[in-house]
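User: Please predict the structure of the protein below. I'd like the answer in structure-token form so I can feed it into my own downstream comparison script.

Assistant: Understood. Taking the following sequence of 131 residues as input:
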Amino acid sequence: MEILNVLAAAVAGFALGAIWYGLLAEPWMQAAKVPRDESGKPINAQNPLLYAGTFVLQLVVAGMMRHVFALSGIDTLGGGLIGGLGIGLFFISPWIMINNLYAARPLRLSLIDGGYATLACAAIGLVLTLF
């Protein structure tokens, strides 16, 4: 049953990413300096390995969050939401910002990527505690 929790949580994080980056595609591409084709779409947008790899990484995050939640005794919806929010906001987002600071990337990129990490981890935490 736990593998189903992890799969469902990874799907939630992946779907939220599609929505988040769909809404913020233009400012994200500008801030990240994503190479584009003549139609303005990212050059690697049609690469299925990109999306498969992203989903596998979502599974890794969801699986580790499930493990941390189990060790911490987090088993309520509120606990899952707050735990996930904390992981995204206080672990992943600062690390993204560190990397972007050293790469001299714009603050906007850190805010977009960190915002997604925070919301996705909150969603993953919520889904993990639904079952």
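That's the full token string. The chain has five helices and no strands.
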